[in-house]
From TrEMBL:
Binding site for FAD: K50, D299
Keyword terms of this UniProt record: Disulfide bond, FAD, Flavoprotein, NAD, NADP, Nucleotide-binding, Oxidoreductase, Redox-active center
Domain FAD/NAD(P)-binding: 4-304
Note on how the cofactor is bound: Binds 1 FAD per subunit.
PROSITE patterns, per database record: PYRIDINE_REDOX_1
Disulfide bond positions: C41-C46
Organism from which the protein derives: Limobrevibacterium gyesilva
Residues holding NAD(+): G175, G176, G177, P178, V179, G180, L181, E182, E198, G258
Family recorded in the similarity comment: Belongs to the class-I pyridine nucleotide-disulfide oxidoreductase family.
GO molecular function: flavin adenine dinucleotide binding; NAD(P)H dehydrogenase (quinone) activity; oxidoreductase activity, acting on a sulfur group of donors, NAD(P) as acceptor
Protein name per the record: FAD-dependent oxidoreductase
Highest taxon in the source lineage: Bacteria
Record-annotated Pyridine nucleotide-disulphide oxidoreductase dimerisation domain positions: 340-446
Cofactor: FAD
Length: 471
């Protein structure tokens, strides 16, 4: 008899989610973690980045208070205290992800490095264990590109940017994706000079029109952004040498150009588990294509024809699929049609479903509905009129995508996620009662604009005149 019903490799967001449900269902679960419980999200990802951003946003709020007629002295950043705040937030959340909590809900937590030694056998340091099902949730790490000189020049990734002993004088950031942009604003807000060097365009997967607004906001906050910049060499300093000869020098360098799955030290060959550069090759239900006992979840999963996604909420979504398939033996497959994502800058950029460019590339006939925050009373009252709600809909009024640029836009994307997931008709969204004055009126007004032409058409006016004559 196997030692465990389920063995989970990795106690990050994805592995913890699988373990929490499986253990509470009464299965014998081994959860194996070689480093820190909570993985990237808790220790070197979402949590510290949002905590650092919160500090930066507080500074920026104080600096911008003049717009309300307030005079607030320039905030003094106590770098050590800010770092203590970040570590304090991690410490506050850590008990939720801890060995003690998972032991208490019935899992066996093993601390050590796991690798396959057979299709259903793992070695965890010296110990050997067999499991009916194995879930690989070993996550990813920052990719470091093969740019000449980079390996010889001290640089940071998300693994070491949090907890710097001194405030960087001039932080160079290679890559203008979510990590690069969030870290740019966090450090700029805390008084660092920041330069983002991006090979293509910042937030390249997001809607170009919304990104224009984000870029302007970041530049107004003093962040230098170089796009279409090819770094051909990295020199001591650190300095980035661009094609064309320009040299951008700073005091610190953060590399944020994407992720690599942690597939190397797992003994995947011994387990008969196939993986490629995107991660462990699975079917759409996250089962390994080559070993039916094995599933992959979180950043390391590479479902065929769909590809990997690196978000904490994807990890828990993956967990729900694996629980359905591996525990309840029900069919389930990943579907990202209604997968939201947010860049947590101020303003935030939130997106769910297709962007305009993606919808056009997929051949959809579409209409674009917009509502600028400059026409939103709450945004006016708070003197933050920058931002836009943008909906991508079919000519019949089905929502394919929603993009929101604005303060706390991430808090508004849930409605549109549900709308896409449940195919809520645009008429219902336009007719929804939204409290006044909230920013959430903006996307509702965008939805309403779909009906404006037919509502105020000559035919409707004729009908109204006719009805007006009735007694
Ligand atoms: C700076 C930054 C900010 C981010 N912000 C957000 C955000 O705001 N929202 C969001 O949704 N996502 C965010 N992400 C992405 C998010 O952090 C990841 O998608 C998520 O943490 C992935 O979880 P995971 O469980 O797949 O992997 P991980 O968190 O990487 O966990 C994998 C775990 O497996 C362990 N492990 C690996 N190999 C072995 C082995 N052989 N044996 C034992 N243990 C092993 C590792 O030590 C690790 O603890 C951010 C990422 C970064 C870098
Ligand atoms: N708020 C969030 O939800 C959040 C925050 C951070 C990270 N994440 C997740 O983590 C993943 C990784 O984030 P990321 O920002 O590291 O990667 P990314 O792949 O999202 O963006 C990397 C950027 O670096 C650029 N780039 C690549 N090579 C380059 C080079 N040699 N020189 C200059 N630029 C280069 C790319 O064009 C791209 O714009 C994200 O895709 C996301 O899934 C999510």
């Amino acid at each position: 008899m196997p030692d465990f019903d389920l063995a989970v490799i990795g106690a990050g967001a994805a592995g913890l989610s699988v373990t929490a449900v499986a253990a509470q269902l009464g299965l014998r679960v081994a959860l194996i973690e070689r480093e820190r419980m909570g993985g990237d999200c808790l220790n070197t990802g979402c949590v510290p980045s949002k905590a650092l951003l919160a500090a930066a946003h507080a500074v920026q709020e104080a600096q911008a208070a003049g717009r309300f007629g307030l005079r607030i002295a320039e905030p003094v950043v106590d770098w050590d205290a800010v770092q203590a705040h970040v570590q304090g937030v991690i410490a506050g959340i850590a008990p939720m992800d801890s060995e003690a909590r998972f032991t208490a809900i019935g899992a066996t937590v093993l601390r050590g490095h796991a690798r396959f030694t057979g299709p259903d056998v793992l070695a965890v340091d010296g110990r050997r264990l067999r499991a009916r099902r194995i879930v690989v949730a070993a996550g990813s790490r920052a990719a470091v590109p093969a740019i000449p000189g980079l390996a010889d020049v001290p640089h940071m990734t998300n693994a070491d940017i949090f907890g710097l002993p001194e405030r960087p004088a001039h932080l160079l950031i290679l890559g203008g994706g979510p990590v690069g942009l969030e870290m740019a604003q966090a450090h700029a807000g805390l008084g660092c000079r920041v330069t983002v060097v991006e090979a293509e365009r910042i937030a390249g997967r997001d809607d170009a029109e919304l990104v224009d607004g984000l870029r302007t906001a970041l530049q107004q906050q003093g962040i230098a952004i170089l796009e279409g910049a090819q770094v051909i060499r990295v020199e001591a300093g650190p300095a980035l040498v661009l094609a064309g000869g320009r040299r951008v020098a700073g005091s610190h360098l953060l590399v944020a150009v994407g992720r690599r799955p942690n597939i190397e030290a797992l003994g995947l060959d011994a387990g008969g588990v196939r993986a490629g550069p995107g991660g462990i090759a699975t079917d759409a239900g996250l089962r390994s294509l080559t070993n039916r006992r094995v599933f992959a979840v979180g950043d390391i999963a590479d479902p065929a024809g769909i590809g990997p996604r690196a978000f904490t909420h994807v990890g828990s979504y993956h967990a729900s699929i694996v629980i359905r398939r591996a525990v309840f033996r029900l069919p389930a497959r990943v579907d990202y049609a209604a997968l939201p994502r947010v860049i947590y800058t101020a303003p935030e950029l939130a997106q769910v479903g297709l962007t305009e460019a993606e919808a056009r590339a997929a051949g959809h006939a579409i209409r674009i509905l917009r509502w600028p925050l400059s026409e939103n009373d709450r945004a006016q009252a708070e003197r933050r009129p920058e931002g836009l709600a943008k909906l991508v809909v079919t000519p019949k009024g089905r929502v394919l995508g929603a993009g929101l640029l604005g303060h706390h836009a991430g808090e508004m994307i849930g409605t549109w996620t549900l709308a896409i997931a449940r195919k809520v008709p645009l008429s219902a969204l336009a007719g929804m009662i939204v409290p006044y004055p909230t920013l959430a009126e903006a996307p509702k007004r965008a939805a309403g604009s779909f009906f404006a032409a037919s509502l105020f058409a000559a035919r409707t006016k004729r009908l109204v005149r006719l009805l007006a004559r009735l007694p």
